[in-house]
Amino acid sequence: MNLFDVYSLFDVTPVRALGCKVWDDKGQEYLDLYGGHAVISVGHCHPDYVRALTSQLEKIGFYSNSVRNPLQEELALRLGKASGYEDYSLFLDNSGAESNENAAKLASFHTGKDRIVAFRKSFHGRTSGAVALTDNPAIVSPFNSHHKVTFCSLNDAAGVEAELSKGDVAAVIIEGIQGCGGINVPDAAFMKALSELCRKYGSCLILDEVQSGYGRTGKFFAHQWYSIRPDIITMGKGIANGFPCGGILISPEFQARKGMLGTTFGGNYLAMAAALSVLDIIEKEGLIDNALKVGEYIKGSIPSSPRIKEVRGKGLMLGIEFNEDVAPIRKALLEEKHIFTGVAGKNMVRLLAPLCLGMQEADRFLEAFNQIINE
Ligand code: PLP
Q1: Which of 49, 17, 16 is nearest to 277 (CA)?
Q2: Residue 23: how many CA atoms within 13 Å on its side-chain side?
Q3: CATH number at residue 300
Q4: Of the candidates 125, 104, 100, 97, the residue with the CA atom closest to the CA atom of residue 170
Q5: Whose CA is nearest to atom 1 of ligand 1?
Q6: Whose CB has fewer CB within 10 Å in the chain, the N or C terminal residue?
Q7: Which of 284, 302, 329 marks a domain boundary?
Q8: Residue of the nearest CA to atom 12 in ligand 1?
Q9: Residues 312 and 183: beta-carbon distance below 8 Å
Q10: 9 C-alpha to center of ligand 1: Å?
Q11: Which residue's C-alpha comes closest to atom 10 of ligand 1?
């Protein structure tokens, strides 16, 4: 049997990793500034993380959500404290897309309304519900056409109000910082207006923090830069450093009802051991402050060049927008300098490094990057 061929692959086969480094099957070392697409938060194979997972596996790996799981309760407690949302509730699932689907579902249960407002250039996942919230026609199938979703422009509060005032909008969903759409940072005034408009018209505000959350931007969640408190916050990626896990934080205004949400694997023991270990390491090693420090250093050190249009983002969620197709630059970074980076669209190199990236590693990237763009 062959694999269903949906991914464009680089010719690299990673077999081992540690911190921000990855080694391929030929022993070549790479610097990882992509973190498997913002997933590796505390670094690859952190010894505490490995220990936490292996020792959990020796006790119990899985049971179902029909019994009490103390690790879920511990995570809720710890996550509430770490994020500043102690009065919210936690529902655990398995991925970012699932978190967004659960958030949209919950908002429609809560409001009795059925339309969602999302934003142009948004990305919320690939399942049919999440992809319907995503502004990328290339990945939307005809099956999604039944979803009632309206796309507004980022930073256009009047456009959002025109939709909310119709009275049928269950929720507005927005990324803390748009990732796949090109590291677009919303204006603080717009985010505040969005929060007030949702309250005024009885719609829920859903913050998709799947990519921008878990410390990546120098705050636990990116929306905390705007001093707003959304109704639902969605999480995935870095929450368990590569062990599949997702979740949503839910405001105390929502009423839980038995059977309202559910999943087989969500909140399983191994995912919980991984997620608890991630919080331990983030706290012990001050990784949120580190993400801000190293990220801002990189941002401030990208040289001005006629080839570069703009450097955007916050902390270790950075986009370097070029006036040209970046495919050859990314290829040279990987093949000549052995550095993994990401992209957004055709013209942006995207950096989503593990939060433990060190200054020396940042310098290694900057030197390589300078050489490549000056070639
Ligand atoms: N939301 C955002 C902002 C994302 O960047 C992604 C993935 O890239 C998702 C949701 C979907 O997450 P997953 O691939 O875990 O379903």
Answers
A1: 49
A2: 8
A3: 3.90.1150.10
A4: 104
A5: 124
A6: N
A7: 284
A8: 96
A9: yes
A10: 19
A11: 124
Asked if residue 302 lies in contact with residue 369, where contact means CB atoms within 8 angstroms, the answer is: yes
Q: What separation in Å is there between the alpha carbon of 326 and the centre of ligand 1?
A: 22
Give dist(CA 219, CA 224) in Å, integer.
6
Number of domains in the chain: 2
194: three-class secondary structure by DSSP = helix
Q: Return d(Cα 76, Cα 371) in angstroms, integer.
A: 46
Q: Is 167 within the bounds of a domain?
A: yes
Within the chain, residue ranges assigned H as helices are 35-38, 47-59, 70-83, 96-111, 128-132, 157-164, 188-201, 269-284, 287-301, 327-335, 359-373
pLDDT digits (tens, 9 = 90+) for 320-369: 999 999 999 999 999 999 999 999 999 999 999 999 999 999 999 999 99
Q: Is 45 left (phi over 0), alpha (psi -120 to 50) or beta?
A: left
- Domain that includes residue 64, residue range: 48-284
- How much is the pTM? 0.98
Among 267, 284, 301, the domain-final residue is: 284
Residues 288, 218 contacting (CB under 8 angstroms): yes
Strands 348-351 and 342-344: antiparallel
**Is the same domain home to 268 and 291?**
no
Q: Which of 98, 122, 124 to mutate to test the pocket of ligand 1 (most atoms within 8 A of CB)?
A: 124
Cα dihedral 154→158→161→163 (10° resolution): -70
CB 329 within 8 A of CB 11: no
Same structural domain for residues 106 and 184? yes
Using a 6 Å cutoff on CB, does residue 123 contact ligand 1? yes
Beta strands in 160-269 (DSSP E): 169-175, 204-208, 232-235, 246-250
Residue 288 has pLDDT above 90, yes or no: yes
pLDDT tens digits, one per residue of 115-165: 999 999 999 999 999 999 999 888 888 887 666 999 999 999 999 999 999
Query: Is 209 close to ligand 1, i.e. is its CB under 6 Å away?
Result: no
